Structure formats: C-alpha cells, structure tokens
C-alpha cells in the first residue's frame, strides 16, 4: 500500500469510527481521540486512554506526559510527526480512572485496525494496558519493560507510561533507558 493510500485509508477509518457510541465513555467525552502522526510511521506508540487535555483537544499526549514523550522522542532523533501515537481507548474515562476490560474490548478492534493500516515495524507500548493488550498477557509493566517481543512480524517494546514517571520521578532514568 502506497503512502497516499495509507493516509486515505486512515482518514476513511477515522471518519467511520469518530462518532462511535459503543460504550458509556462516548456520552461523557468532549472529543474522540483517534491518534496522530504519520500514516506510514515505522514506529507507533500506544498509550492507554486520553486524559483531560487530550479529551479537550482531540489529540493524544498533549499534556505533561505528552511534553515528556516529545522530549524522549527528540532524544532518539524522532519528531512526533514521524511516528504515530494512539491509545487503546479513544475516549477519556471519567476522572482519568483506569480503563475497564469491557471498554478495552470495545476499542480493541479500532486500535488493531490502525496498526493494520499503518503497519509499523515497531510498536512501543506505553504502560500496562497497551502492553497487556498487545502481548496478550496480564504481567505487570515492570516485569516486561526493557524486553523486546516479536508478535506477528512486529517488534513490541513495553515502556513505562510517561505519566507514571511524572508521578514517580525516580523512574525517569529507567524510562530514558527504554528509549
């Protein structure tokens, strides 16, 4: 699939799902947060769910965790526009609570279709929920981070979520090592 085709296919997919009403989160969201970046990115980052700022702007990782992610991307020579960033959930859970299993199961097909269209060589899972989903495991992120997994011809690299590091600054060096 050519680059133009990927962009068009991703746009068509967004238009198809942007008005999703499949779960209760759709009733409280401000904006549907599809994802952003390059449709032909070699690397994709997958977080768990939009937060308050993301819900307001309709873009992933635009708050403090997003600023940290941008700094980390810069440290490895990437700009946000060269990767694709998405979340498992496309709508914000109330109070930024953890995603529920039924919400993950509802949104899972959306993320998997994004991965199929973009076809990244590497997926960096940010935190427990995206890691557990894409590796089909219930192991904790601290057990899996720093390791490399091959799933369906893709490399999956579990990484601590940048927001977790903001709450526990002592983990910053570990996060930098993962990048």
Automatic annotation (TrEMBL):
Keyword Heme (UniProt): no
Domain Uracil-DNA glycosylase-like: 34-176
Catalysed transformations (reactions): Hydrolyzes single-stranded DNA or mismatched double-stranded DNA and polynucleotides, releasing free uracil
Keyword DNA damage: yes
SUPFAM superfamilies per record: Uracil-DNA glycosylase-like (SSF52141)
Class of the enzyme per the UniProt entry, highest EC level: hydrolase
GO terms of molecular function: 4 iron, 4 sulfur cluster binding; metal ion binding; uracil DNA N-glycosylase activity
Keywords from the UniProt entry: 4Fe-4S, DNA damage, DNA repair, Hydrolase, Iron, Iron-sulfur, Metal-binding
Listed InterPro entries: UDG_Type-4/5 (IPR051536), Ura-DNA_glyco_family4 (IPR005273), Uracil-DNA_glycosylase-like (IPR005122), Uracil-DNA_glycosylase-like_sf (IPR036895)
EC numbers: 3.2.2.27
Matches recorded under Pfam families: UDG (PF03167)
Transmembrane segments: none
Family as reported in the entry's similarity comment: Belongs to the uracil-DNA glycosylase (UDG) superfamily. Type 4 (UDGa) family.
Protein name: Type-4 uracil-DNA glycosylase
Species in which this protein is naturally found: marine sediment metagenome
């Amino acid at each position: 699939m050519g680059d133009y085709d990927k962009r068009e296919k991703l746009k068509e997919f967004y238009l198809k799902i942007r008005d999703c009403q499949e779960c209760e989160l759709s009733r409280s969201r401000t904006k549907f947060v599809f994802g952003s970046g390059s449709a032909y990115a070699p690397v994709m980052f997958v977080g768990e769910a939009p937060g308050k700022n993301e819900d307001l702007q309709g873009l992933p990782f635009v708050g403090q965790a997003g600023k940290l992610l941008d700094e980390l991307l810069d440290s490895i020579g990437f700009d946000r526009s060269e990767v694709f960033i998405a979340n498992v959930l496309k709508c914000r859970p109330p109070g930024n609570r953890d995603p529920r299993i039924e919400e993950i199961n509802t949104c899972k097909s959306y993320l998997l279709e994004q991965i199929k269209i973009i076809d990244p060589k590497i997926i960096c899972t940010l935190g427990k929920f995206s890691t557990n989903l894409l590796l089909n495991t219930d192991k904790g992120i601290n057990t899996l981070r720093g390791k490399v997994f091959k799933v369906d011809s893709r490399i999956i690299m579990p990484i601590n979520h940048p927001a977790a590091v903001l709450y526990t600054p002592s983990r910053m060096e570990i996060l930098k090592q993962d990048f």
